[in-house]
Design goal:
This protein is α/β, with parallel strands linked by helices. 37% of the residues lie in helices and 20% in strands. The chain has an eight-stranded mixed sheet, with helices on both faces. The protein has a three-stranded antiparallel sheet with strand order 7-9-8. Helix 5 packs across helix 9. The longest helix has 14 residues. It is globular, with a radius of gyration of 18 Å.
Length: 294
């Protein structure tokens, strides 16, 4: 058995460089590709990807981690630009089918990309995809709708106010440990997030993901993921939705996915919070292993 390792690599896209972390047996063809949650980065998923002992790729989506791709906060109305990045990456750099996985907005981005890359996707794993009802998407398209949501939606308002600069990684670790969205993270998962999400800034470090970009993503809900759901791999997919502290999905949306991949492959767990891959890496690894080995 080859020794597992990891390395970072940048990939040319149409308007810049997309950064990715490779885990596992990197001499073998990639078996899984992971898409990060909003505000996070590919390295955040080290604790669930590295132990799989297969070649896994975790992307830093546009505006996140070490990717160097332009962002336009004012122009962001939907998640199509992230979809297009994933499609381009697959078309240029993926030659054989693999498992597509994602967390939160990354899970949705993967589904949005499926109609154009489904021939290169052998399975899908979603960790709490964000499903927005039609009326909320319509509100997002009204004049001033996104600006209103930036002020009134708590998760977006808090993201825009997020502290972005720290003296060091350790100072950031102490700041975040068991606070806010990071409550319940294992120490290893929190350090992985910071390792992949902080960049040098003068005498200290700053978040690679601009808080205003993170905020813009939360309210840019003009896409319609339900048009792409029928392209999920019907016989090799699993989606876990979380309900603790409030769900980012709704029942008929979850049912739409269940109709394609089967009710037995869709879990709604009211005891799990949205960041459950960082709270319980073993569970997340289990779902990935099931689809990888199907």
């Amino acid at each position: 058995m080859r020794e597992a390792s990891s390395f970072r690599k940048s990939y040319e896209l149409r308007d810049g460089q997309l950064s990715a972390i490779h885990f596992g047996d990197i001499s073998a063809p990639p078996r899984i590709l992971m898409l990060n949650a909003n505000g996070f980065n590919g390295y955040s998923y080290k604790t669930i990807l590295e132990p799989l002992s297969v070649h896994a790729i975790a992307l830093d989506l546009r505006g996140h981690g070490m990717s160097e791709l332009p962002t336009d906060v004012a122009a962001l109305k939907n998640w199509h630009i992230f979809r297009d990045d994933v499609v381009e990456f697959f078309n240029r750099y993926i030659s054989a089918p693999l498992v597509l996985a994602g967390h939160s907005y990354g899970a949705v981005t993967g589904i949005l990309a499926l109609p154009q890359i489904k021939d290169k996707v052998s399975g899908y794993v979603g960790f709490d995809p964000v499903l927005i009802p039609a009326f909320a998407r319509a509100f997002n398209r009204l004049p001033g709708g996104r600006s209103f949501m930036k002020r009134r939606l708590p998760i977006a308002r808090n993201a825009g106010r997020r502290r972005s600069k720290f003296d060091s990684l350790e100072a950031a670790f102490r700041r975040y440990k068991n606070r806010g969205a990071f409550r319940g993270f294992t120490d290893e998962a929190l350090r992985d997030y910071l390792t992949g999400g902080l960049i040098p800034d003068g005498e200290g470090v700053k978040l690679a993901c601009n808080p205003l970009w993170e905020q813009a993503i939360f309210v840019a809900q003009g896409h319609n993921v339900f048009k792409a759901i029928p392209h999920l791999p019907p016989h090799n997919s699993h989606v876990t939705f979380a309900g603790r502290h409030g769900a980012v999905s709704f029942r008929s949306g979850r049912n739409a996915i269940a109709k394609v991949i089967g009710e037995e492959n869709v879990v709604f767990d009211i005891n799990r919070a949205h960041m459950f891959p960082m709270h319980d890496p073993d569970y997340a690894m289990g779902r990935l292993s099931e689809v990888l080995n199907a």
